[in-house]
Design brief:
155 residues; Ubiquitin-like (UB roll); 5 helices; globular; DNA polymerase, domain 1; 5 strands; single chain; 2 domains
Length: 155
């Protein structure tokens, strides 16, 4: 069974007919062509698929697309403005927060939600906000430094 949904995706309205059981990650990747949410564990454990729904981090591998009807969904692709990286994206690049890059979109989305609510987080608050996101390449030092640098760079 399909349902018509209306969502605000990265600041642009969309209307699509989607199956009742279509996961948000599959909608974003296969239907829309946004590849930043990554399939990692397919069980909500790794955070590689993290997107923002109405500003809150959500694992798109556990979210049915129909539950996003009437809501705002954000992915990494929507963070850059006017061809310029967001301060957080730039900080991840400049401070080597992205190792292989697989977890990076999910980390950036979780950190974006944090910085919007708390523009000057402590290291402990950053760690807590990123606790649902696993990086298999690093000890998280560069990731935390990247979030701190973005917080410092934002007026």
């Amino acid at each position: 069974m399909k349902k018509i949904i209306r969502i605000d995706l990265n600041g642009r309205p969309r209307e699509d007919a989607v199956a009742d059981n279509l996961l948000l990650i599959d909608y974003l990747r296969e239907e829309v062509g946004l590849t930043s949410p990554k399939k990692g564990c397919d069980g909500g454990e790794c955070g590689a698929c993290t997107v923002l729904v109405d500003g809150a981090p959500r694992q798109s591998c556990l979210t049915l697309t129909v539950t996003c009807d009437g809501r705002a969904v954000e992915t990494v692709e929507g963070l850059a403005a006017g061809g310029r990286l967001s301060p957080l994206q730039r900080a991840f690049h400049e401070h080597l927060g992205a190792q292989c890059g697989y977890c990076t979109p999910g980390m950036i989305m979780a950190a974006t939600a944090l910085l919007r609510c708390n523009p000057r987080p402590t290291k402990a608050q950053i760690r807590a906000a990123l606790a649902g996101n696993i990086c298999r390449c690093t000890g998280y030092v560069k990731i935390i430094e990247s979030v701190e640098a973005a917080a410092e760079a934002t007026p």
